[in-house]
């Protein structure tokens, strides 16, 4: 058959062009609808054509409009990338809700690089925290962080991340010994913290016992704390560091009225398992998953042994200014057996719990701790104390702004699903 060489009628060409333009218009507009933006997946596949778009006056990667493929992308595997071009959303001077304990700049820290490291997963890009989008998502809802002082840091980080876009007079803070509430009045939203270092009850919940050997956990009781968690829309739990005060934990069933004679000493991972099962049973019995979302933040690592990262002559985390780059690094401050306990307990629950795995990415951040730029007993360290980092450097808590902001960036990504 010969090739037809006649001219294509103008009407046909017009139809083809119009169809192509319509298709292009649909492809461009579809992903940018508000519904699509609010249904972003936890992490977006990288693209060579990634560009920045402006959302609410802040720059965000357009690639978070792409679908997330859990088989190709994990938030847990990646590296810290230095990016000084992006300023943190707050500072310890602009956000008055930070405890002095974690306000490292106020406490004299001179280097600032620790504030400019971004977590970059290997096969995807983590959406940046947009405070306005987050507040709109929280409209009419209660978000509560439950746990120890590290969970309190995550709460303060979250409050400071959204605080910058809330006008004066449109917010309030009520601090309590156990329960603290930040309110964004315009959104009728609260961001709360509840102090329960073991989640279950203990004899050191309110009047803290400085000597870990005197602490007793009541592994079968949680109602005293949990009554504050009812009717909360988003619960974010954590418990780890308070369990790590020894190889064994004093464990009690029944009433504290039995006193010292009532407890048994169990291996810590055993009592941890019992305590988490009590928490899991409460969640399964009291949480309606159609109304409440439940998260569990994994353990935040401590960095007390510089030999873990090859600094044989170092003193704890003192004077560390860069993250660890060895992807195989896992230090002695993170207990894999305890990590397995969390996975085992959560995996058997009826109510779905989203685990925010912050352990590996935090393991690399030996530079992010408060170190000597902190306080002790309500007072900033003296010059004499700062000169003795072996005894006074805090390598458990983190400077803010800092690493806990990334934990909240991950939480934000899940909440926007």
UniProtKB/TrEMBL annotation:
<comment type="similarity">
    <text>Belongs to the PC-esterase family. TBL subfamily.</text>
</comment>
<dbReference type="GO" id="GO:0016020">
    <property type="term" value="C:membrane"/>
</dbReference>
<keyword id="KW-1133">Transmembrane helix</keyword>
<keyword id="KW-0812">Transmembrane</keyword>
<feature type="transmembrane region" description="Helical">
    <location>
        <begin position="6"/>
        <end position="25"/>
    </location>
</feature>
<keyword id="KW-0735">Signal-anchor</keyword>
<keyword id="KW-0472">Membrane</keyword>
<dbReference type="Pfam" id="PF13839">
    <property type="entry name" value="PC-Esterase"/>
</dbReference>
<feature type="domain" description="Trichome birefringence-like C-terminal">
    <location>
        <begin position="126"/>
        <end position="413"/>
    </location>
</feature>
<dbReference type="InterPro" id="IPR026057">
    <property type="entry name" value="TBL_C"/>
</dbReference>
<dbReference type="GO" id="GO:0005794">
    <property type="term" value="C:Golgi apparatus"/>
</dbReference>
<dbReference type="InterPro" id="IPR025846">
    <property type="entry name" value="TBL_N"/>
</dbReference>
<dbReference type="GO" id="GO:0016413">
    <property type="term" value="F:O-acetyltransferase activity"/>
</dbReference>
<dbReference type="Pfam" id="PF14416">
    <property type="entry name" value="PMR5N"/>
</dbReference>
<protein>
    <submittedName>
        <fullName>Trichome birefringence-like protein</fullName>
    </submittedName>
</protein>
<feature type="domain" description="Trichome birefringence-like N-terminal">
    <location>
        <begin position="72"/>
        <end position="124"/>
    </location>
</feature>
<dbReference type="InterPro" id="IPR029962">
    <property type="entry name" value="TBL"/>
</dbReference>
